[in-house]
Amino acid sequence: MREKKAMTQIDRRTEKLTTALRRAGVRITRQRAALLSVLAEAEDHPEAIELQRRAEAVVPGISLSTVYRTLTELEHQGVILRHQFEGTPARFEHSEARHHDHMIDVETGEVIEFANDRIEALQAEIAEAMGYEIVHHRLELYVRRKRAPGDPD
Amino acid sequence: MREKKAMTQIDRRTEKLTTALRRAGVRITRQRAALLSVLAEAEDHPEAIELQRRAEAVVPGISLSTVYRTLTELEHQGVILRHQFEGTPARFEHSEARHHDHMIDVETGEVIEFANDRIEALQAEIAEAMGYEIVHHRLELYVRRKRAPGDPD
DNA sequence: CTCTAGTTGCAAGTGATTTGCATTTGCCTT
DNA sequence: AAGGCAAATGCAAATCACTTGCAACTAGAG
Ligand SMILES: [Mn+2]
Ligand SMILES: [Mn+2]
Ligand SMILES: [Zn+2]
Ligand SMILES: [Zn+2]
């Protein structure tokens, strides 16, 4: 039942994360390998504790310290992103996808991604006009689902 | 030496903050009065501890808990804003000025304000297009001063 | 001036994340 | 295959920025 040929997108992501760690000269331990594939598989923006839960399926005893330590290293290598949304612990995602910003539904906590080139361009212009260049930025829209006229509660 | 007529801008701001607290049904204590005028006078984005330091000029023993408690109340009344920039404790400012966003010089920590209607409009459009309305948002540009060609180090 | 509910300062508690340290463990070197 | 050792792990304790419990105060209505 083991596929030999098909390298899935997730495998590729896992490899990229692994490579980043090797490049940093760190060892690929069981716990790290588990965490890397959990990150590669994630479609959402999980917190450290949730990543630990998911990794425990493979490495039962993995500690939260190890999760945090590895996340910090991966962040330094630039292969994952750490987001600090309002009112929650930090959330993480791999940085494979191209840049995007986030909307957070204040009612449900759901995180929705979006990208807009005009906004990105405007930001750069503004900074430029004031004599600065952007190192990085953070744009978060805290939103509420809009009721269409005549919608039920 | 006491001016009777001239109500300065700062006096007006202090009054607005005071009114907000009274409206909330809370008492104007010595410590609160001090904090309110410190906030009204502030031209920058001070942290709670810095506000405490400034208030101590008037009320020597004012505790940090009281500062935090009052700041939280003022925030709930909508007369001050709490900003959570990366890597620092929360910073505060009165909300007299119209809406603006912030650039943070990653080298110096300096906070620079800016406002751009096109960005604001675009944000609203994006949310709208996805069926949401914006409750509030957060746009922070982490920047570095740009070296003009031929500038000294 | 009195009375009392709101407020204060202080100490202790929280929640997320980091760190110290003794014990394992990857993995390069024989 | 075995050895050696720096790096990594797990656990407990520490940190940081606030928040909260509580007994002693005090603003301010009557
Ligand atoms: Mn995302
Ligand atoms: Mn500002
Ligand atoms: Zn962006
Ligand atoms: Zn804005």
Automatic annotation (TrEMBL), chains A, B:
Signal peptide per UniProt: none
Gene3D superfamilies: 3.30.1490.190, Winged helix-like DNA-binding domain superfamily/Winged helix DNA-binding domain
Keyword check for Transcription: yes
GO annotations of cellular component type: cytosol
Binding site for Fe cation: 99, 101, 120, 137
Cell location: Cytoplasm
Keyword set, alphabetical order: Cytoplasm, DNA-binding, Iron, Metal-binding, Repressor, Transcription, Transcription regulation, Zinc
One GO biological process term: negative regulation of siderophore biosynthetic process
Cofactor binding: number and manner: Binds 1 Mn(2+) or Fe(2+) ion per subunit.
InterPro entries: FUR (IPR002481), Fur_C (IPR043135), WH-like_DNA-bd_sf (IPR036388), WH_DNA-bd_sf (IPR036390)
Co-factor(s): Mn(2+); Fe(2+)
Domain of life: Bacteria
Listed GO MF terms: DNA-binding transcription factor activity; transcription cis-regulatory region binding; zinc ion binding
Assembly behavior: Homodimer.
Protein family according to the UniProt entry: Belongs to the Fur family.
Name assigned to this protein: Ferric uptake regulation protein
Organism per entry: Thioclava pacifica DSM 10166
Gene name tied to this protein: fur
